[in-house]
Write a structure and sequence with these properties.
By secondary structure, this protein is an alpha+beta fold. It has helices spanning 11-19, 77-88, 128-136, 275-286, 290-296, 302-314, 322-328, 333-343, and strands spanning 28-29, 47-48, 53-54, 63-68, 94-98, 112-116, 140-144, 147-152, 161-162, 168-176, 185-190, 193-199, 207-216, 222-231, 254-259, 262-264. The protein is built from eight helices and 16 strands.
Length: 358
């Protein structure tokens, strides 16, 4: 089939043309933080990195590149945080990795990659439709030198909705990698918030770590993501390239392995509810006045709080004003952090992974 017309400047028209292409199976938004033809899709002018909204409307893509070894970011966490924010807004979009090599030797083909869960007994005859369906469903792992795998209750894997959960939730993470990479840290993220982390002892073997965590069942649905990291490779046989469009002179190369989410049905209704949907329900029930809204949010995490702050602001409230500030001073810390994060969306994000919520 001929490719879609690349000339439309309206994102909705362009995506409509892409989806209308015969044989289209997966639409991927590549390196959304890079500037091309004067446009950066996830520039803060267009994209809110806290609540995952875009001025041009819903993304309507199947996957987003969070690792591109040929176009790395100065802060490697930036595209990961962006993707998690999109998940928090309720869009089910798969994280992918790629090497994007346009050169013979400068960028290594296959350094950044995506592993898809599908039968591969005959590599020459992989069921492409089944592989694409698995990718759309989030049954994929992202790798830059490491591979992280995660299960919940020994029966739910990435892309799954984990249902019928008990009072305790058991999470297992395995980290793999070749002999030339090591892992020194693995973290577990709920709605993009770091809730568990462990330091790892370097080992040259293929199994870098096996970690198990027992969590209290959250009071509401969350998406879980595991991320393993380690020192970057600088040796000439597998060097990690410097950032493609650097935003800082400071840069520390890291290897990384990231899972797609497992969705926890913590409220037991048989479906996954996003932070955005929870926030909409709370705002509809409690209104946008801080004296009623903030107490109604007390059992929710900061991702839900940030979405609620955005809804208040859109309804004409001033979440940066004195009245909200006065009530926020006595609100639970996750609520304070969520409102503060939304209020600071025009500020530079830090060169660090998401902060842990204790």
């Amino acid at each position: 089939a001929p490719p879609p017309d690349p000339k439309p400047t309206d994102w909705t028209d362009l995506l409509r043309a892409i989806h209308a292409t015969p044989g289209e199976r997966v639409v991927v938004l590549n390196h959304p933080r890079d500037l091309h033809a004067g446009f950066r899709p996830f520039d803060p002018e267009h994209f809110n990195p806290i609540i995952g909204t875009h001025r041009r409307g819903p993304l309507k893509v199947d996957a987003i590149e969070v690792v591109n070894s040929g176009a790395l970011q100065s802060d490697p966490w930036t595209p990961i945080r962006d993707w998690m924010a999109v998940l928090n807004h309720g869009e089910r979009i798969t994280a992918v990795g790629a090497s994007d090599s346009h050169d013979v030797a400068r960028f290594i083909v296959g350094q950044g990659r995506t592993y898809i869960a599908c039968p591969d007994g005959d590599p020459a005859h992989i069921d492409v439709e089944r592989a694409c369906r698995a990718l759309r469903e989030g049954r994929a792992l992202v790798s830059l030198g490491l591979l992280a795998r995660m299960t919940v209750e020994d029966r739910f894997s990435v892309g799954d909705l984990a249902t019928k959960l008990g009072e305790q939730v058991h999470v297992a993470v395995e980290v793999f990698g070749p002999s030339w990479t090591t892992a020194d840290r693995v973290g577990l993220y709920a709605d993009g918030i770091a809730i568990r982390e462990a330091g790892l002892k370097p080992t040259p073997g293929p199994l870098k770590a096996r970690i198990t965590w027992t969590l209290p069942r959250p009071p509401h649905d969350v998406h879980l993501v595991a991320i393993a990291t380690g020192p970057g490779v600088t040796a000439p046989y597998w060097p990690i390239a410097r950032p493609y469009q650097p935003t800082s002179r400071a840069w520390t190369p890291r290897v990384l392995g990231l899972t797609n989410p497992i969705y926890l049905d913590a409220d037991g209704d048989g479906a996954w509810t996003s932070p955005r949907a929870y926030a909409e329900a709370v705002v509809e029930r409690a209104g946008t006045s801080p004296d009623t809204l903030l107490p109604a949010l007390r059992t929710y995490d900061e991702a839900v709080a940030a979405q609620a702050a955005a809804l208040c602001q859109a309804a004409g409230g001033d979440v940066r004003g004195d009245e909200f500030a006065r009530h926020l001073r006595v609100a639970p810390e996750p609520i304070q952090r969520g409102f503060a994060a939304f209020a600071s969306t025009r500020k530079q994000t830090s060169n660090s992974p998401p902060q842990r919520e204790d």
